[in-house]
Amino acid sequence: MKRWSTKDLEILRPASDGRPGDGILTFTDRYSVYDFGVMPDEIPGKGIASATMAVHSFGLLAAAGVPTHFVEQVDERSLRIRLLDIDLQGRRAVTGPGGMIPLQVVYRNALPRESSVHRRTAAGTLDPALVPPYGDDGAPWLASPMVEFTTKFEETDRFVTAEEAALVGRVTSDDLAGIAELTRTVAGVLTAHADAVGLRLADGKAEYGFDEHRRPLLIDHVGTPDENRFYFHGTPVCKELLRLLHPGLRDQVQQDVRNGTPRSRWPRPARLGDRLVTATAEVYAALSALWTGGRPDTPQPGQRLTSAVEEFHAALPEAQLLERVGLVGAPSN
What is the Cα–Cα distance from 161 to 163, expressed in whole angstroms? Predict the structure, then answer.
């Protein structure tokens, strides 16, 4: 059994000889923010909500012809997947059949106030020419999706250029272009569904590998609040809520990274109060119901999410939500 910050993986059959293996991916109630690692609290029902949204999203992608590693749902929080080989030591010069590409691909429909794009362009680490202009809706919504690459298995993920991404991922420039185009398709499918259910999708990330014929395959999962930044009437209903539970933690983590402080010496965050945990859990449950259409015996999903967001606002110890995040007043190009 492999255990990550928010998910567990049971290996039923390992990948070998360029052929995918077989595994069970389980979504837990654990959470992690700012590359900090597992936080002290758990959010009850978060794993079930995320698994439910992931399965629904895999169905949307299958209908759009996007190949994924999803096989079937095993129980309310577990999925059976095609398992790819992970070459962490770089034993092979090229990522081959049955292998995971060690990159994350970020897609952006919008650049809200908290987007790292603003900080990186201001610092000169991102070429402004690579940022699409704002669209007809104005800031923060882009005229077309922006696609970027980050590292995957370094201690802290970092953005890389397309040239460096090809080296890190051990793929060709054509492979990378194909993955970027597949990501735009994924973004389009999820954006259309978000619009249909009353959400707005600002950004998300995807991961890929190659099947036994070295064809690109979407792996891990998408269409969940951990992988996507969803907004509901201007309020983030996604992992950003979890970040808001820990004001000041981002600045602390960034300072520790700049200072080269080992992760083992980072201070541990305090535990949350019961009201915040309960309010956050209800946001996850209500969001999942909205994304999947809900059930006839439950309240209207939109009404339920509205109530959940209102309670989350009320439970925050400070009026910090709209100061930190939001779709209004984002910086302009």
Answer: 5
